[in-house]
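hey so i finally got around to running the thing on that chain from the lab meeting. sorry it took forever, my laptop kept dying and i had to restart like 3 times. anyway pasting the input first so we r on the same page abt which one it is
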Amino acid sequence: MINKRHKHITEANQVLISLGLPRAQQNERSALCLLALLNLTPRKKWSKAEKPLMGITPIMDWMREHYQKEYAPNTRETIRRQTMHQFVNAGITLYNPDKPDRPVNSPKAVYQIEADTFELLRCFGAREWHEKLTGFLDQHETLAAKYANEREQNRVPVQIAQGKKITISPGEHSELIRRIIEDFGPRFAPNSVLVYAGDTGDKWGYFDAALLAKLGVDVDPHGKMPDVVFYCNQRNWLLVVESVTSHGPVDSKRHTELAQLFTGAKAGLVYVTAFPDRSVMAHYLGEIAWETEVWIAEAPSHLIHFNGERFLGPYKTP
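ok and heres what got predicted. didnt touch it at all, straight out
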């Protein structure tokens, strides 16, 4: 009997988060649909994934056979409307690629993983995963971003790696997030990789969930993530950054919340609060927790260290 928490299900959910699927599709049902579209049975490696043509009923049969997950016949429409429809809209799955003129809702309707997505997912868990993911997201707008685009057209471009960009919702808060990624990161965490960037329009603006999981942190889609997370491989640090424009800094309460959220991390944690200018910092000065760092966007080459025996670095949890 396959446990429903089989690692492939967890990994598939990490993939969906990383690809920018909305929260409604970050679940076991959608993870199993993705595994079915890859014919990724429990003992098969991601590098051995396939891309069969599959209809909804065969997908449900596959789930039952390989992961012992039984869905009632009347959930067929739920899978079609609440998972497969979003997969197609996100561009990660093709609908009737063998016969595009097949009537809508035909009993012969089939789905297949999209070619670029297929090549990306075969790299899951490999050393090149993060680089491939950033390149993929640079070329393929995520479904979460598409939904946000329907609400807001003037999105803010953010460079997440050399020559690669994403866009996030406009606004003062997002502008500070952009400055953190483009100014703070290269100065104080050179050669680090972006793991997460929040978005006021969509909480998961950018998230390499698989990389964070590899570092020992179980991804909780409902957890209160910081605004930006970097991983510095050279020092084995995770830098968690809060962007403060109208909400509070890393105070004692938030410090504890972040420590709990990142429990199990194999990397040392560095806590940073970012402000747009000193006037905003002055408003929150009395709340900033000790053993954290403060960065101000208007003076990007400087860092303020709140106590401790070192200038910048993680501290052991008491």
